[in-house]
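Margin note: ligand = glutamine.
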Amino acid sequence: MQLYYLPVHELHTMLAKRQISAEELCRAFFERIDSVEEKLKAYVTLTRENALEQAREIDRRIAGGEQISPLGGIPVAVKDNLCTEGVRTTCSSKILYNFVPPYSATVIKKLNAAGAVILGKTNMDEFAMGSSTENSGFFPTNNPWDPERVPGGSSGGSAVAVAAGEAAAALGSDTGGSIRQPAALCGVVGLKPTYGAVSRFGLVAFASSLDQIGPLTRDVTDCALVMNVIAGHDPLDSTSAPGQAPDYTGYLKNDVRGLKIGVPKEYMGEGISPAVKQVIERALATLATLGAEIEETSLPHSEYALPAYYLIAPAEASSNLARYDGVRYGYRAEGAADVVEMFMRTRSLGFGPEVKRRIMLGTYALSAGYYDAYYLKALKVRTLIKQDFDRAFARYDVLLSPTTPSPAFKKGEKMADPLQMYMSDICTLAVNLAGLPGISVPAGFVDGLPVGMQLIGKPFDEGTLLRVAYTFEQNTDYHKARPGI
Ligand code: GLN
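Resulting structure:
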């Protein structure tokens, strides 16, 4: 297989044995980027010079006899809502098109410290609002399995970079599905960690009670390796969980005997395409053969996850996005007569239609007279959803569902109907509302398009997710398929 299609752990072995240098590896990835980027458009910004310099530094360390860490010299991509000191961070929004942060996000610092080579910043739905990367303020990103289709979103650029060999691994962010959904539609592994497991310091805020950063990788082993670097307490993020993160690679065991897996019937019913359901049923049969105990269960408040999410997330977004006023960050509209007009013009011209829709929805839900009926009600529903999961986890070790109701859809197909677009996340939203970890792993294909299986875990039990995902992967070949781009 081509270098650019190998998983991180294999590239690491080659680097450690000096079969290849970090600089050669970095150049191989840029060559790949140069050959496919025109078709895919995964990146907003490439950081060639920085990357080559980082790679040469790793080579010097290897030459000096140093043992490099598992991500040392590995070419990675990061979503463009993660602040990178000195490198433009746009959130794929016109309002931040020229914003260069004076500091780096904690996860970026951790990647740097581990010796990872950052190739660039990936395209996304503007401010992470969307499910197709078509809401990018710059350009859409295309799915490598079929460039006429969307890669999912909002971390579409990161998912495509990994799927198409334009990065060995990537970081994304997930507020309602934005790591898992594009991972599913692009045929890669995507993990949304438990709320608080990974520091969000330096992640541009969308909905602060939901946002988490996590890895997109070619396989489950790589997912554990990236988690080992990015997870753990950070005093700079007050929502970051105390204590040390585990060694996630310790959970990579090919064994699910006796594990109890619950399958919530609400996630296998109405709205899920029959072909996707078939893929998931086959995956369940595989896990049963391997000794897992599988049972149908119920999360009775599932149908309210979408309405609750679309009140809570926009409410938080309307507050978080108030800071983009043309004074402190990025774009400022010219020619305004006074400061109020300047605010209005800056925000009218700087934000795209979906971001404006969210700000209006959120402001409405929070306004006097509507607060109790909408925002407060949504918070109560959130508690009911959390309680559904608590009950299920008293009985099951993990829950299993499709990641998305259908494989990648055609570009433009859902752009005219926001509700249809929102439905792309019906299997993932509740996991964020409950603050739980969720992973999507490749589980099969429908008409040549990848389908993802979602595993949902107890809080801070990423370990069991990795174990089930790893076992599934060791006994199937879906993660080895590569798009023919
Ligand atoms: N698609 C969902 C939304 O538009 C989730 C986005 C995300 O997880 N960032 O809000």
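The chain has a mean pLDDT of 97.
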